[in-house]
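Bumping with the actual sequence this time:
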Amino acid sequence: MAFSFSTRLTDLKKAENTVWDIIVIGGGITGAGILLDAQSRGLHAILVEKEDFAWGTSSRSTKLIHGGLRYLKQMDIRLVREVGKERAIVHKNARNLVCPERMLLPIYSDGSLGWGLTSLGLKVYDWLAGVPKDEQRKMLSAEKTLLHEPLLKKDNLKGGGLYYEYRTDDARLTISVIKTACQQGAIALNHAEVKEFTYNNEGVIDGIKLTDHIHATDHTIRSKVVINAAGPWVDNVRSFQKDTTDRHLFLTKGIHIVVDREKLPLKQSAYFDAVDQRMMFAIPRGNVVYIGTTDTPYNDDVNQPHPTQHDVNYILQSTLRMFPDYPIGKKDIQSTWSGLRPLIQQKGKGPSELSRRDEIFESKDGLLSIAGGKLTGYRKMAERIVNRAQRVIGKRLACQTKNLVLYGQDFDSTTDVQHLCHRASAIIKGPDYLGERLVHLYGHFAMDIIERAQLKSSNENDVSLSELLQAELEYTIEHERVCSLSDFTIQRSGMLYFNRAWIDKHQELLKNTMAVHTQGIPTPFNDAQEALLQKAYQSVLAFR
């Protein structure tokens, strides 16, 4: 599979010289899912993304594959059933990336959920979602709830419920889906921005004109169908049409904060009432804990959704309310991220009440747009819109993704994932989570990275962090089309959010490695990416 920085120009040339079945605009999880669905059916598909893959919402979520518990509260039974089943499929097809995560739901006499309703709700949830027996809910007394998580507020605690969600890394899932599609013959281009549509003699869209931001060149790509899966930018893309349509999206913002686990030493993940009785997650990850999220209307710059002082205070106050013996303040925040939800407008409903269902818009000029939906449902979203696209193409090929294991993620069980984690950790100098991190992010390719690091080490059984970081960066340039340090530190590795100290310490090493392995990138692009990286730094450090 050729999905490297070095083959990018070759792919651009091929893109121009081919009439594609489907062009997908948008490199988030929705666009990635569409690319894989189309290509695995035997359609010729290409994806273009104006920034990096997973640059927007798909690297800024709560990083959970939800089973839809909150939708049960809204009595959306169909959605609970669908996302519950999809969760199981996504887990089966990427066991290292989508892992069971035990969640504790504390119940308080003054909380939003009562004991009886919570017990019944979790039981119904297990049934609708088809939860395996060993992951079904357990109700706990107050004493046993505190054994699971001693940091919880003790006043008015009645007990708790244990249930399972599935944690993931949203950006890594997106990249893995794209890599799988490219392995089957698709093309995916990052840093390639659509500027306008092309039209045939009947006034129907038959392609796109784009600018390659790396080399500042313009290109035209033709196809039978164009699908707009640009997430929060769906309406921006639709504005390129000759016949403009009304705005359909309602954007809401969600933020998360990251603190050192020593400041909030949680034993496990928790799902609890915020100060306004919305629900909030606190999730341990390695040596940090991340907490979120908010849900507020957003009308500012789609490209720069920064946390506000009010957003951060809301999370801090909610966390203090639930874990009063471990107060955290602004000085304890290591990083933050902020993402946008592209929801469908519904009159009379507030942000938290809007449906998370996806919707397909078909324009008179042939453009197919899809918006809404959740990370969990990306595969079904892709199936629905590719089915629609096939009507235009004139084919009836069946969806293949239900049992399609993602490239490099072929594990028979969670135990197999754990075995590879132990193997990786035995080689790497440092805490066990270093090896676990690589396996959970890269699957079997984690060992390729470790082997690269071993070649750099004087002792192949004692790999250092610097050697590992250098090897990881080299691997992502050669196999995941990394074009800049921003691509690597945010979308591929997540280090800017979860391991920022590593970047601070090894920044020069990473910059030098990047320069050696991406020769030929024009200076203007490098300068622009450096500015983008500095903006990202400023954003995550805004509330320190």
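The tokens above came from a reply further down the thread. The first strand starts at residue 19 and ends at 25.
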